[in-house]
Design a protein that fits this description.
heterodimer; A: mainly alpha; Arc Repressor Mutant, subunit A; three-stranded antiparallel sheet; 11 helices; 6 strands; globular; B: alpha/beta; Rossmann fold; six-stranded mixed sheet; 31% helix
């Protein structure tokens, strides 16, 4: 593999090293199969809010995935991708799920394929990327419901505890703390939500994008 | 970059030795090179080859044991206020917010509060961190932390941007994204810096980003190669010419 080759002999590699799990395929195959089921991954159509869970994945990783796929011609086998990245299969899948939730990729069969919105984001400048992510997030029912919830509040603000409570209601099977942290990270990137950890205040980011 | 600019700085017969209990260690041996304005230089070499030491010398944080650092035709004495550094481990202050971290280098450079705010906000937006102003480093992913490190360095509008393994604490995908966005920021007319020196141990990273690659051999570090990378950006790792550069640099080190 080229990537391994480009790594110098004495380098203390910081890459995650477990191609092992890729061969431990029983588990992985089950995951892979479940991905093919319709509705297995939140499609963002807003019909089934109980399906929507936010993966614990940062925006930079998602964008990196789309950029990598684009450099490979827009499509790659998921197993090959995990092997090349030297990432755990489950971890790779989590990034793919996150990108799929944002409508940037699709997963036909065992492949991951860049969607037109994903293609567009790779061609966009940093500020436009944020706008695209904002548009995509606004299609998700969890974000829509949360925005409604904040809109009903004074100053469009809620305490962290109030949001956690709301999340427990909207996504009862998920760890609300984890969902909250993803919400804050994605929300900040998209300039949709703001959060102040000193005052534990979560709010609708109403500042105009320029 | 197209036109070779004037010489911004040069290392002349630089030796660097450190005293250790076991005796003196020579880290750099007779290093000579010139950097022109507008160049993006990558220094590659194995760990322990003295790559980071070169950055500290250019930054004036360390005087050379022997030889000279010439900056704008003058010997460099003390810290170079025209240089700013991006660190591998981000170097953020955990008790300060994103905005406060970005504004950190501006007070010593004589900007008043309002000017610091304005300058900070401008570079926060450039690196895509608008919306994160009041976040603390603990709330950020590695990719976002390194964006803060980059914004802080850019905010001082340095003549030279020094980057010490800026992507190596990041996971593979995040570092792809940050390299891509760095090229985007760099090609922007608003980019305040035109000379960049980046240290990395990943050959492909050097070829992907730089105009020129200096290859450092190990213990003691000496310059084993100096290559111009004549490839249009964005660069494709699968490209034949790209692979030839990888092979060439690899053979210079191995």
């Amino acid at each position: 593999m080229k990537a391994a080759r480009g790594q110098l002999p004495l380098a203390n590699g910081t890459r995650r090293s477990s191609a092992k799990s890729i061969q431990d395929s029983k588990d992985s195959k089950d995951i892979k199969k479940s991905m093919d089921k319709p509705g297995g991954i939140g499609s963002g159509d807003g019909k089934s809010s109980e399906q929507i869970q936010l993966p614990q994945i940062g925006i930079s990783e998602i964008l990196g995935l789309v950029e990598l796929l684009k450099s490979k011609g827009g499509r790659e086998d998921i197993y090959k991708l995990a092997a090349e990245l030297k990432m755990e299969f489950g971890e790779t899948l989590a990034v793919i799920r996150a990108a799929e939730l944002l409508g940037l990729v699709n997963t036909p069969g065992g492949d991951v394929l860049v969607e037109p919105t994903g293609e567009k984001i790779t061609r966009s400048k940093i500020s436009d990327r944020k706008l695209i992510v904002k548009e995509q997030l606004q299609k998700l029912s969890l974000f829509r419901k949360l925005s409604e919830f904040l809109n009903e509040k004074d100053d469009h603000r809620a305490t962290r505890d109030e949001v956690l409570e709301k999340l427990a209601e909207l996504v009862p099977n998920e760890n609300a703390e984890q969902t909250f942290s993803s919400l804050v990270n994605w929300g900040r990137y998209a300039e949709l939500y703001g959060y102040n950890d000193d005052s534990q205040t979560f709010y609708l980011d109403l500042e105009e994008n320029n | 970059m197209t036109d070779p600019g004037r010489i911004l700085f040069q290392l002349e017969n630089v030796f660097q030795r450190f005293s250790l209990p076991q005796g003196d260690v020579t880290v750099l041996k007779n290093v000579n090179f010139q950097a022109r304005e507008g160049e993006f230089i990558a220094i590659v070499g194995p760990s322990g080859a003295g790559k980071s030491t070169i950055l500290r010398l250019i930054n004036g944080l360390l005087p050379p044991s022997e030889g000279k650092i010439i900056y704008k035709d003058q010997p460099l004495i003390g810290t170079n206020m025209d240089a700013a550094m991006v660190f591998q481990s981000f170097g953020l202050l955990p008790w300060l917010t994103v905005a406060e971290n970005v504004e950190l280098g501006l007070e010593p450079r004589g900007l008043d509060r309002a000017a610091r705010r304005k300058r900070g906000a401008f570079y926060i937006e450039k690196v895509g961190l608008e919306g994160y102003e009041e976040a603390y480093p603990r709330e950020l992913s590695g990719g976002m932390k390194q964006r803060v490190g980059l914004a802080r360095a850019l905010a001082v509008e340095p003549e030279i941007l020094l980057m010490d393994e800026p992507f190596s604490s990041l996971d593979a995908l995040t570092s792809i994204n940050l390299r891509d966005e760095l090229i985007d920021i760099w090609s922007d007319r608003d980019f305040p810096v035109n000379t960049v020196v980046m240290v990395t141990h990943i050959i492909e990273e050097a070829i992907e980003l730089a105009d020129r690659v200096l290859v450092l051999s190990s213990r003691p570090g000496t310059i084993a190669g100096d290559l111009q990378i004549d490839l249009p950006r964005p660069r494709d790792k699968r490209d034949k010419a790209f692979i030839e550069y990888v092979d060439k640099i690899f053979s210079l080190i191995a």
